Amino acid sequence: MISYSKSIVALGLMILLNANGVLAANAGSTASVEITNADDNLAKLAVSFPQYTYRYNTENYQSFVQPAPVGNVEGETPTITTTNAEVVTINDNTITLTGKTGVAGVTYTYPATDSHAETTAFYSVIVTAAEPTLVGTASEWNNVVSKGDNCANIKLTSDITLDADSKTFDHFSGIIDGDGHTITIDINNSAESAGFITWSNGAYIKNLRVAGKITNNYNYSHLGGFIGCTESSNWGTQFVETVIENCVSSVEITCNSDNARVGGFIGTAQNAFTIKSCQFDGKIISGADYGRFVCDNWDPVGTYYKSTITRCLSTGYIEGSSAYGCKGSINEDVYVVDNKTEDLRDDAKVLSADDDVLDGTFCYKVLNSNIAGGPWKQHIGYEQYPSLTSKYVIKAASNVYPNISVKANSLLTMALPISISTKANSLQENVKVYTVAGTEGDVLQLEEFTKDEIPAGLPVILYNTSSSDVSYYARLLYIAYYNDEQTDNPLQTVYFSGNENNTFYAPAGSYVLQKKAGSNLPAFYKVKNDNQIKIAQFRCYLKVSSANAVPCFYLPTGNTTGISSVESNNAFDGDGKIYDLSGRRVNKMQKGIVYIIGGHKVMVK
Question: Which is nearest to 201 in space by CA: 174, 183, 235, 161?
């Protein structure tokens, strides 16, 4: 501490006066002068770091440039110290990693001057292994936890189910990359803290879904689907930020206490945290306080850390006593579709069932943050909510207006990522809609679709029986998606954003609808090579098993000259000879195929 010289002079004068008895007339009063120091009179520097926690690994960062503080520090040299010299060493204010995994706090101390008090600023360094340890079984998981490396770098290779005897991390500071996989837990105890990870001290968890159950009976417990409780660090002197990104909590948490903190992701946070692009679709059953993402956020000295919950979705179910006032600031783009919307804060958004969640807008814009190649996926029209495990890929498509035009007396495949009316205008009354049920020999087995609306994502064949072109219009906002194996339907849909860079080729061995050269007969003809036949967006191609790999598949509904009517009567005039539509005579009719008998076009149903 620095004391002003004038304070010292004042104290000396008082002592002198007392010694000469000048104050004797006022002997009943006590005189005192308070010593003033710089810390009491001067503000500290505004020094901070752009983020709390810096992550490095043992291979790529043996030495590194120390993070630059921001604020009024020009011309001043701090003293730099570390809390863990086994992980970080400091020589002449140069920071170097030792090559060991672990956590180290780094403190910058700026000495007091006449213009400011002594100022300290903090950040944390977490060092993990350069290459992740691959984990694909419960046994491999238990082995990693047993090694005691709380800064382990883990990547899952498959889904894992952990039984009640499986191990869990305490004081975890490392990395867990779920790579889209699921860990299922089964925890039933009376511990103070319970979760997939019991205590976190700066963990980074991404691309992971945690499912299963947590049941706890402790009277003042911290329960979280991912983390029971994050640790305070040196009573608030170090910021060790826990990050959960692109994750789903599907855990059912049952708290048998009326005095606990229960959170879908974190029960209690005693340090900074960030939860972004995450979904809670689990269940909370609690007689105590609850929070969809985090229940409580605090630190022992009463200073709340800057924490964020952003771009997240809650679709879970809650039976709780009261929603605890989580001090983590909830940013924009936090959406709720769960059952307890009456307890929401003003900065959360309530979605209805038919809102942007269903059409994929939320998946693309919010969870993937407008990134087409993000980890969140959704099969529009089939999957109600986004997921990390779906095989259907979201792609960007801003204000696309498909105009599906079926030429007169012709056929066309169609699939849209939104539902569309089959009878929006009078011309569409002349269009028959078929789905493909399978194949028999070299003929497609079709089923007529008679409902008034074609569901989103359903691949169909449109057969225009009229002499006029018929169009189907749709407006796609923000998104469309494509995948060459979206459903088990033989017809595979092709969706993409429609720009010229998104060219899709039917894969070799598949079949595309076209007219063969020299023939008016439309059929699905086999594609011999990759990158040979282009497929337009919102169209379909045929995919069948190798056992049915014939050169082409015929359609029983007619040809491009049109079939205005099909008779199903079995008795006809004439010589009784049967011909197919190519003019070849046949001896026996098959169901679903159009033949010519006595000048009539006939199909046996």
Answer: 174
In sequence order, what are the residues at sequence separation of 6 or more whose Cβ sits closer than 8 angstroms to the Cβ of residue 50? 67, 70
Tens digit of each residue's pLDDT (9 = 90 or more) over 327-381:
544 544 577 777 776 666 656 777 765 566 766 777 877 888 877 678 888 776 6
* pLDDT tens per residue, range 82-135: 999 999 999 888 889 999 999 998 999 999 998 899 998 888 999 999 999 999
Q: Are the beta carbons of 221 and 267 closer than 8 angstroms?
A: yes
Pick 34 or 138 by higher pLDDT.
Answer: 138
Q: Which two tokens stand for residue 32?
A: 């005192």
529: helix, strand or coil = coil
Higher pLDDT, residue 166 or 237: 166
Cα–Cα distance list, 286 to 4, 227, 252, 253, 254 (Å):
58, 17, 11, 8, 6
Query: Could you give the CA distance from residue 269 to residue 239 in angstroms, rounded to a whole number?
Result: 12
CB 160 within 8 A of CB 89: no
- Burial label, 7 (beta-carbon count in 10 A; 0-12, 13-18, 19+): middle
Class of residue 205 by CB neighbours under 10 A (exposed 0-12, middle 13-18, buried 19+): buried
Q: Which residue has the higher pLDDT, 342 or 542?
A: 542
Classify each residue of 382-420 as buried b or exposed e, where b means 16 or more C-beta atoms within 10 Å of its C-beta. Answer: ebebbbbebebbbbbbeebebebebeebbbbbbbbbbeb
The answer to whether 496 and 400 are in contact (CB under 8 A) is no
CB-based contacts of 224, cutoff 8 Å, min separation 6:
194, 195, 196, 253, 262, 263, 264, 265, 266, 267, 268, 294, 295
The pLDDT mean for the chain works out to: 77
Chain position carrying tokens 């983590």: 328
Q: Tell me which amino acid residue 466 is.
A: S
Please check whether residue 481 is in contact with residue 466, taking contact to mean a CB–CB distance below 8 angstroms.
no
As a dihedral over the C-alpha atoms of residue 318, residue 322, residue 326, residue 330, rounded to 10 degrees, the angle is: 60
3-state DSSP assignment of residue 334: strand
Q: Is the pLDDT of residue 499 over 60?
A: no
Q: Where does 58-115 show beta strands of DSSP type E? A: 79-82, 88-91, 94-97, 102-110
Residue keyed to tokens 């070849």:
584
Question: 250-299: per-residue pLDDT in tens?
Answer: 999 999 888 888 999 999 888 888 999 999 999 999 888 888 888 887 75
The predicted structure's pLDDT at residue 600: 56
CA 345, chain centre distance (Å): 23
Give strand pairing partners of 394.
Answer: 481
Question: In the structure encoding, which two tokens stand for residue 481, read together?
Answer: 């998606």
Quick one: the chain helix, strand, coil %, rounded to 5? 10, 40, 55
CA dist list (Å): 373 to 376, 396, 574: 9, 9, 63
CB 452 within 8 A of CB 425: no
